[in-house]
Amino acid sequence: xxxxxxIDVSSYNGVIxxxxxxxxxGFAVLKITRKDxxxxxxxxxNIKGCKAQCIPYSVYRYVYESTETAAKxxxxxxxxxLRRYDAAPGTxxxxxxxxxxxxxxxxxxxxxxxxxxxxxxxxxxxxxxxxCGKYWYDSVLQTGKLTxxxxxxxxxxxxxxxxxxxxxxxxxxxxxxxLWGWQYSSKGVVPGISGNVDLNQIYGVAAVTSYPVPAR
Length: 216
What we know:
Layout: E1 4-9, H1 18-22, E2 27-31, H2 43-52, E3 57-62, H3 68-84, E4 92-96, H4 107-123, E5 127-133, H5 134-140, E6 150-153, E7 161-162, E8 179-189, E9 197-202
Parallel strand pairs: 1-2, 2-3, 3-4, 4-5, 5-6, 6-8, 7-8
Antiparallel strand pairs: 1-9, 8-9
Helix pairs in contact: 3-4
């Protein structure tokens, strides 16, 4: 499968014109929950927009949990929302581990919390992966204990980038796990969205999603 360009969005991106986004975008990752485990303020509109435009999507939880008990509770909240909005079986949940509040947790403790979340998500019939920066992958996480796909952030440039502009291949993150996607800019320009947008190059959507990618 050829590379796909996609975006990840949350309430910080405001109200999105998914009709315009759908004309160019091959994939979207939607923030699903806030810190208090309630739905992101734009999640309802965003998942409905993706469905209406037949844009394949996954979701992410920005993680504040570093214990197994807390991670399970957060994962259960994510699952509940996926069911409420009738997300397709196999929809992938990205566990976004980058917050400073969990940086001080022991590697074994943090890894156990990720595995606990994965167990909850996969038992409910959804996919699971980890999002993090290249430094976290190399130095913070106990990656040898994790077998899920990874979505890695690494920015080769701080300049504004037009959607669909290919990043310099020499900066592509090199990891031992399946690299699902590379978040290569936080300053993307995308039709239908005001302000900067995170841009991603995605490698083989079918590898980590069990639902079919809609015909465009």
